[in-house]
UniProtKB/TrEMBL annotation:
EC number: 1.2.1.84
Subcellular location, record wording: Peroxisome membrane
Protein name, UniProt field: Fatty acyl-CoA reductase
Family affiliation: Belongs to the fatty acyl-CoA reductase family.
Length: 396
């Protein structure tokens, strides 16, 4: 069996979502650890007046790419920015680009998605389901495709007690939903959304589940694997420890706690904080493509699913998160902290409620014991904006 870098040697790779959190790490790791890779084509839409090429040029200037730049100064020559908006017909690809991609791509990583939990259902369907369908259609036209990797989420099936490495029946047939959403206006869709979601908490997990079904139904003879990470956090080791570029989910909570702004949060101390470092997820993703791709003639064709989660062997609980946050930020304080970090995760809704009250103008208000209110910008990544009261006299 070839090694991972050997497998990628001479290959043309296509990545969607390369400007996103995980896509960037994927691009960096692929180029750094597999120096024989021929080219990385990245589908990028223009944004804020910047063309795809300019966006990529900006992106590779960031610290994440420092190590790669040092090891391979000419790495940028291998990145080909292709203009594409995944929500537009034909992915908005020019005929020329379609011809190039269908004739040269060997491996596809489909990472792009909307990860906003509260995205309107129609928009979440557009990107998470319909764009996946367009990518699969493009993949069918690729003459030299060896493997198609779809990045899903471990929470696509969060309504289940046990999530095995299989695709589960979807909440509704995605084809029927696509047809229905076509004639419904936005108001009707938003009225219908809670009923459609059923046990699922949001449109994100719902549409990611539908995308998995779409992949299974429409992959035909493509060699496909699905990666399901849980909550993706900062890097563990690569390219250096602690890299992250967003305040989504727990990262925002950690920063707010470290700054001393967040003092109380409702969480079950015994629940598993299923955080996986981004470099672990990306290594799994690259290895999954290597396995499926290099074994494509040796094993019967089947859709492989990889749950990339912490699992049950060595679980890390939210109760431990509280201890780690407080200890870490006391030992290594953040710059310009508002006061000493001391977050409390409370499973009891009443005690949490006691320390948390919504303020009418939707600003985050942190109050010291002397009652002096201090206004802060709303916490990034935390959907509900709340008033946080200090509950001990340590103050500022
Ligand atoms: N982050 C997590 O904790 C986590 C956990 C489990 C699974 N996942 C999955 O991992 C994948 C990547 O997540 P992420 O955290 O990297 O997300 P992200 O940072 O929000 O990145 C999303 C990417 O999709 C691209 N995109 C969005 N709309 C597009 C469009 N219309 N046309 C072209 N590109 C478009 C974005 O491009 P722009 O820069 O142009 O916006 C960006 O590159 C997703 O499939 C997600 O479901 C993430």
């Amino acid at each position: 069996m070839v090694t991972i870098p050997e497998y990628y040697e001479g290959k043309n790779v296509l990545i969607t979502g390369a400007t996103g959190f995980m896509g960037k790490v994927l691009l960096e790791k692929l180029l750094r650890s597999c120096p024989g890779v021929k080219a990385a084509y990245v589908l990028v839409r223009p944004k804020a007046g910047q063309a795809p090429e300019a966006r990529i040029a900006d992106m590779i200037n960031c610290k994440l790419f420092d190590r790669l730049r040092e090891e391979q100064p000419d790495f940028a020559e291998k990145i080909v920015a292709v203009n594409s908006d995944l929500t537009k017909p034909d992915l908005d690809l020019s005929t020329e680009d379609q011809e190039t991609l269908t004739s040269c791509i060997n491996i596809v990583f489909h990472c792009a998605a909307t990860i906003r939990f509260n995205e309107p259902l129609k928009d979440a369907m557009q990107l998470n389901v319909l764009a996946t369908q367009k990518m699969v259609n493009l993949a069918h036209r690729m003459k030299h495709l060896e493997v198609f990797i779809h990045v899903s989420t471990a929470y696509a099936h969060c309504d289940r007690e046990l999530i095995e490495e299989v695709v589960y029946p979807p909440p509704v047939d995605y084809r029927k939903l696509i047809d229905t959403l076509e004639w419904m206006d936005d108001k009707l869709v938003s009225l219908m959304t809670p009923k459609l979601l059923g046990e699922r908490p949001n449109t994100y997990t719902y549409t990611k589940a539908l995308a998995e079904q779409l992949i299974q139904q429409e992959c035909g003879n493509l060699n496909v694997a699905i990666i399901r990470p849980s909550i993706v956090g900062a890097s563990w080791k690569e390219p250096f420890p602690g890299w992250i570029d967003n305040f989504n989910g727990p990262s925002g909570i950690f920063i707010a706690a470290g700054k001393g702004i967040l003092r109380t949060m409702r969480a079950s101390n015994n629940a598993v904080a299923d955080l996986v470092p981004v470099d672990v997820v990306i290594n799994t993703t690259l290895a999954a493509a290597w396995y499926s791709g290099s074994q494509r003639h040796a094993r019967p064709r089947s859709l492989l699913v990889y749950n990339c989660t912490t699992g049950g062997i060595n679980p890390f609980h939210w109760g431990e998160v509280e201890y780690c946050i407080n200890m870490t930020f006391k030992t290594n304080p953040l710059e310009q902290a508002f006061r000493r970090p001391n977050v409390n995760l409370r499973s009891n809704p009443f005690t949490n409620q006691y320390w948390t009250t919504d303020d009418e103008d939707n600003h985050t208000v942190a109050q010291g014991h002397d009652g002096a209110g201090v206004l802060h910008e709303p916490l990034v990544g935390v959907e509900h904006r709340q008033r946080y009261h200090a509950h001990e006299p340590d103050g500022i």
